[in-house]
Design brief:
With 746 residues, the chain is of the alpha+beta class. The protein folds into five domains: 36 residues; 142 residues, PAS domain (Beta-Lactamase, 2-Layer Sandwich), CATH 3.30.450; 94 residues, 2-Layer Sandwich (Beta-Lactamase), CATH 3.30.450; 208 residues, Acetylcholine Binding Protein, Chain: A; 120 residues, Methane Monooxygenase Hydroxylase, Chain G, domain 1 (Up-down Bundle). Helix content is 45%, strand content 23%. It has 16 helices and 22 strands. The strands form four sheets. Strands 3-2-1-6-5-4 form a six-stranded antiparallel β-sheet, sandwiched between helices. Helix 2 runs antiparallel to helix 9 and helix 12 packs parallel to helix 14. The radius of gyration is 38 Å and the shape is elongated.
Length: 746
């Protein structure tokens, strides 16, 4: 008990000490602020300076805090809205598929029940089947498959069905022996009863080439006491019908949806090869060693809704995955939404963050004025605040530089091609356009690029060497010639394009060309030395304008040729390439949709609109540090010496100041001329503004000494021997440089 009492007493004493300590801390803060922010015995200008700093500091802090909150809320809202949109689309598609499945299932069960009850005779069956498919316009077919000799004693197999072929309802009869085990839709129904089957191909693919999926249910002979099994009734959908539902999804440019069956077989995927080949998602996850995705799909197949964040190791893209199970048959509807599309362009983000940094900057300036009582005057106070202001402006300039040097974001504004699914999504409008123009579907030619070297031969030209290869499939590309066009190439004396290799296996022909071309590009030097260059190779097939084909010829990236397609890993670029003053930032394929204002002389052809031109883009960032130091170093020395002149000279030494200024101007002019020789551009680049500021301050210092010698009695010169101009020298200069930096990069 004594021990417990002692512990209790210690706790009570500790609790009493807490409020006492808090009170002492509050008193210290109050005394510090009272002492720091005191304005006792101050003059009227000092009081005005105090309250001006206090009010403007409060306004700056308010704007900074509100701006930060709004920026954070905007970013969160952007992601939340996109996420909710994807969730709604997932639920909508799942419900729509459930609705369609319900009517298909209802039709089959209705016919089966009528046959089993005797309400529907064999003679009335065909008429009933026809009425059911007419009523359900989304069905591909509906039919029956009798057991051997169940229809007539002398008829072994009978399986009539009505199918909707090109909007016409026609009567067909299955001629194959569907009782064989390989026809699972029949044997599974006999063993399991009513079920939704797995996708399968019709035996006669000349009628329907796409896989079909359907509901199958047995019916019984009503004329036998034990109601023996007589056959099955089925109603089927073409997976093309499912595709129409999925293509109605609004998931951005590269987001997509997919459907898998209970066994993991793809019923729909934008990459048609997956569902036409009846690929299984579990096989793919095992091949890719993606255990996380496999676990999520298993969870969804058990009926649990799934939401997850995924990062594709191949493309580097972040995405949301939503999985929902249909109530009717346990299919899983999946939605993949690419998060990178939500991110605004890096320039937009930069403008907002610069605005916030300015608000925090001015809060820091006014806070330093208040804390160090610069409003009361005094050499030490003003000098200290001048130093702090200079540091704040320099820090803000560095912050803007950091934003400029950050990795750029492209997905929101450019059509990056990082997956076959994304390519399919971007080319979907081209297929629709071909149908509208009564053309055959576009011919897609897989194309790859590998760059071995480059050299900037002029401000607008780059000499590039490397390889380009294409794949041609027998039976698909037979009408095409073999060749490429580099749309931005200049055929000078050094150009070369030759076929380097050709290989054919299993009907797939691969042709590779070596190229060495000067490519003309519109480089922008405005940000020099923080500039980056988009090195673009614009590739067209030489038949892209062949009017005899009656179809478009479109190049697509041969993504399977690259182990990783993440732009940060610079696919398609030689890692041992000599870069000089540049370093590789990104490389990627992209589509640029071109509209031509001519039909190229083909009278029967309309001008091409939104034609997808394949470009391979390499982002090069200038290695600015060494260059920037070599150029800024002399300027910093000149400005420091100029400040030393300002500190040490007086009004009697005006001629010496003029001589020093002339020497400084000569040094700066020579340095600026070397910059102009390195970059030939019409406009003014960012670095040149630094030279202009140096010129300005050489002029201002000179003018200051001239006026000081002519008007020494002016109050601005009398205060502490020209101290005001000395105190303003660095902060005003940094403020101008910050303003220039913001105007250039915003």
């Amino acid at each position: 008990m004594k021990i417990n009492k002692k512990i209790q007493n210690d706790v009570v004493k500790y609790d009493k000490r807490l409020p006492k300590k808090a009170k002492i801390i509050k008193q210290k803060i109050y005394k510090f602020l009272h002492k720091t922010l005191t304005i006792n015995n101050a003059s009227k200008p000092q009081i005005i300076a105090f309250y001006t700093s206090l009010i403007l500091g409060g306004v700056s802090l308010t704007l900074a805090v509100l701006g930060s909150l709004l920026y954070t809320l905007e970013q969160n809202e952007r992601f939340d809205n996109a996420k909710h949109q994807a969730q709604r689309e997932t639920a909508r598609v799942a419900l729509e598929i459930d609705r369609r499945l319900y009517f298909a299932q209802k039709s089959a069960i209705s016919v089966a029940n009528s046959l089993s009850s005797g309400q529907l005779s064999d003679g009335e069956l065909l008429e009933r089947l026809k009425s059911e498919i007419e009523a359900n316009t989304e069905l591909l077919d509906i039919g029956v498959a009798y057991q051997p000799f169940a229809y007539q004693p002398d008829v072994k197999l009978y399986a009539p069905y009505y199918a909707r072929i090109e909007d016409k309802i026609e009567l067909f009869e299955t001629k194959i022996n569907y009782t064989k085990p390989k026809y699972a839709w029949y044997s599974n129904t006999l063993n399991k009863g009513p079920n939704w089957g797995e996708p399968h191909l019709w035996s006669d693919t000349s009628i329907v080439s796409d896989p079909v999926v359907g509901f199958y249910t047995p019916f019984y002979n009503p004329n036998t006491p034990e109601k023996s099994l007589q056959g099955i009734v089925y109603s089927e959908y073409s997976l093309t019908q499912i595709r129409q539902v999925m293509e109605s999804l609004d998931l951005g440019r590269t987001g997509y949806g997919f459907i898998i069956s209970k066994t993991g077989t793809y019923l729909y995927h934008p990459n048609e090869e997956l569902f036409k080949a009846q690929a299984n998602v579990f096989d793919i996850t095992y091949e890719q060693q993606d255990e996380k995705l496999r676990e999520l799909i298993v969870k969804a197949l058990k009926g649990t809704p799934v939401e997850a964040n995924l990062t594709d190791e191949i493309t580097g893209q972040n995405s949301w995955l939503f999985l929902r199970t249909t109530n009717r048959n346990g299919w899983v509807v999946g939605i993949v939404f690419i998060q990178d599309e939500i991110l605004p362009d890096s320039a937009v983000i930069r403008r907002k963050l610069i605005g916030l940094s300015i608000a925090y900057l001015w809060f820091g300036v006014f806070l330093s004025v208040l804390l160090f009582q610069a409003y009361l005057g005094g050499v030490k106070r003003i000098a200290l605040v001048s130093f702090i202001m200079t540091l704040l402006f320099v820090a803000n300039i560095g912050f803007v530089w950091n934003l400029v040097l950050r990795a750029r974001t492209y997905t929101a504004t450019r059509n990056l091609l990082l997956s076959d699914t994304g390519v399919t999504q971007l080319l979907a409008p081209q297929i629709e356009l071909s149908q509208e123009l009564n053309q055959e579907p576009p011919l897609i030619i897989p194309t790859g690029v590998f760059i071995q070297s480059f050299d900037f031969t002029s401000p607008k030209d780059a000499f590039v060497t490397g390889y380009i290869w294409q794949e041609y499939q027998d039976g698909v590309h037979d009408e095409l010639s073999r060749g490429i066009i580099l749309a931005n190439a200049i055929e000078d004396s050094d150009y070369e394009l030759r076929e380097d290799y050709r290989h054919k296996k299993d009907g797939l022909e691969v042709i590779g060309w070596y190229f060495a071309y000067t490519l003309r590009m519109d480089f922008d030097f405005d940000y020099y030395p923080f500039d980056d260059k988009d090195l673009k190779i614009r590739i067209l097939h030489q038949d892209f304008n062949n009017g005899n084909l009656n179809r478009r010829v479109i190049l697509a990236p041969n993504l399977s040729s690259y182990s990783v397609i993440n732009p940060r890993t610079t696919p398609g670029v030689d890692r041992e390439m000599v870069l000089g003053e540049w370093y590789l930032r990104d490389s990627f394929f992209e589509y640029v949709f071109k509209t031509y204002n001519t039909n190229f002389g083909l009278l029967d052809s309309a001008p091409k609109t939104n034609f997808p031109e394949l470009q391979f883009t390499v982002i090069l960032q200038r290695s600015f540090l060494g260059l920037f130091i070599s150029k800024l170093g002399p300027m910093i020395v000149v400005l420091t010496l100029l400040f030393a002149v300002l500190l040490t000279c007086d009004k009697e030494q005006t001629m010496e100041v003029l001589g020093a200024a002339a020497g400084f101007v000569f040094i700066v002019i020579l340095d600026q001329v070397t910059v102009r020789q390195q970059i030939i551009t019409k406009g003014i680049v960012y670095l040149e503004y630094f030279y202009f500021v140096v010129y300005l301050y050489i002029f201002l210092v000179t003018l200051n000494f001239i006026l000081w010698s002519l008007k020494p009695d002016l109050q601005i010169f009398k205060y502490k021997d020209n101290f005001i101009f000395k105190a303003l020298y660095w902060p005003s200069m940094m403020k101008i440089l910050l303003l220039v930096t913001i105007l250039v990069f915003i």
